[in-house]
Amino acid sequence: YNILVDNDFNIKLCDFGLCKFKADLNRGTMQFSGTPTYMAPELFQKKSYDEKVDVFAFGTLLWELVAREVPFDGLEPSDIKEKVLAEEHLKVPFSTNKKVATLIKDCRALKSSTRPDFE
Question: Domains, the chain, ranges and CATH?
Fold first, then answer.
């Protein structure tokens, strides 16, 4: 995982060796690597991509935090790909705040153009 939490619950996001400059992202020609559980549809489809792949991964992380389980646990990468491309939604627990549930759904949208951004 790329999230570090210290004893005071301060959170740091990190990425060891997989960072790319935004200018490189705009070319959309680089190869990707990542954990299938958090991968956006455009990565599975080998399409060009931008920072919206991080928004998709963020939505998956939010789901993991509220559901308290690992998404697609035990599935093979090919099965995860199939579920993501079919836009199979991760079931958000009923007790989840509606705004958080909506944010998860919006971040995990199949079309990157409909996902929110971090700005």
Answer: 34-114 (1.10.510.10)
